[in-house]
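Example record

The entry below shows one chain as it appears in the dataset: sequence first, then structure tokens.
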Amino acid sequence: SMRLASANRHIALGRLTLMELGSQVIGLAVLIVLAWWLRSVWALVIGTLIGATIKTVLSHRILPGHRDRLGWNRDAFAEIFHFGKYIFISSTAGFLINNADRAVLGKFITIGELGVYNIGYFMASVPLMVCFQLGGRVLMPLFAKTPSREGPANRRKIRQARALLTAGLIGLGFLFALTGEWLIDVLYEAEYALAGPIMVLLSLTYLPTLLFNAYGDLLLAAGRSRSFTLHKVVLGSVQLAVLILLVREYGILGATVAPGLSALLVYPLTAWLVHRERGWDPLLDLGFLIVIILGAAGVLALHDSAIAEVVQGMIG
């Protein structure tokens, strides 16, 4: 439904939330009934399809907009194709960024160690998923409505929104870093205890990504899909190279450092691309980087014994 995209662009969060909650509740109820009735994995497949259908129907009933119908517009096709060809490449680079660590680690560590790492990764990636969702649903529509090129008033609004959202995301990242060991101890058996310090390290290394991710949304909102793709490809290439180098020498510990180090190494390119759109905010970045460095030092000091266990037991 095009109404979903339109509602996201106009930040109609009330109706979007109502639709999302309604479709989730109805879909979950249907899934429970199907699981009780079929007692088969097919219940999950059918339930997922029904849930998606319910969401589509609700989007047409709840969200405002024109009725969709088939049509052809040559100019619109050319614009979408030109914009989308870069998005395809950037999506491939994004997949590499999000999954390269486990692909590289699989060559250097055992299956058991990779399983432990995956647990830590899954838990630590929650703030990242929240970041991507909020960026697409809140920041990108804001960037589109208030382009940074169009005056200092727009830039002030962008700074306020980005500062508020980034503070919340970094706070969430620190919360997961502080409670990582405890969460793993509560949720998993003792044999997976090393996933706790891995979660701590990954939660910290994702903090620079939480800080800089909004710049990608700004480029897309400005229609600069080529610049966005360039950034993604360079970041993916740098992260892959850093991963291979660090994992060869330090094993899992190297994989936990690579994402944050790569984001910092690519920051000059990030700043240059966004500066061309009058969207670079070096003071805000510097302030949050200082908070990240000081906070990370404190978290590492609190978890020093567990981190030492990872260093001693999993390097190489």
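Notes for this example: The chain has two domains: 2-62, 78-314. The chain has 14 helices and no strands.
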